[in-house]
Design a protein that fits this description.
Elements (H helix, E strand, L loop, with lengths): L1 H46 L1
């Protein structure tokens, strides 16, 4: 029983870590995309 609980806790921690990792990657890509859009808009409005 205790061994099962430990393995379940480990898998829970692993899934939490994976979810946090994906969220981190998502925010990094979101930041890159917003910086890119900002630079494109600045270039467009600077020309006109």
């Amino acid at each position: 029983m205790q061994n099962l609980f430990q393995r379940d806790l480990g898998s829970s921690l692993l899934s939490i870590a994976v979810i946090l990792g994906w969220l981190g990657l998502f925010f990094v890509f979101l930041r890159i995309i917003t910086i890119g859009i900002k630079r494109i808009l600045e270039a467009i409005f600077k020309k006109s």
